[in-house]
Amino acid sequence: MENHIFDLKQMQAQELTFEELMSVEGGGFWYTLGIILGIATVVATVIALITVVGPGAALMAII
């Protein structure tokens, strides 16, 4: 079996530009993961704030 070089130009394929790559939608998985990680970050920050300064001061900081 011979090894052939895979050449996109011979196949007349075009590479995507940076703008096109950035506009490709990642799909529902990445959107959902972003929401879950965002909520987890907020919850972890609130828990850390309550742990460090106490519940009364944390409530005043949030308000």
Task: Give an overview of the whole structure.
This protein is mostly helical and 63 residues long. It has a domain at 25-62. It has three helices and no strands. It has helices at residues 18-23, 28-53, 55-62. Helix 2 packs across helix 3. The protein is rod-shaped, with a radius of gyration of 24 Å. The chain starts with 17 loop residues before the first helix and ends with a helix. The mean pLDDT is 81.
What's the short version?
The protein is mainly α.
Q: Judging from the principal axes of the Cα atoms, what is the shape?
A: rod-shaped
> Structural class, judged by helices and strands?
mainly alpha
The portion of residues assigned to helices is 55-70%
Largest sheet, strands/sense/barrel: none
- Rg over alpha carbons: 24 Å
Indicate the mean pLDDT: 81
Count, helices: 3
Succession of helices and strands? HHH
Beta-strand content bin? under 5%
Distance from N terminus to C terminus (CA atoms, Å) equals: 70 Å
Q: Unreliable segments (pLDDT under 50, ≥5 consecutive)?
A: none
| Total strands | 0
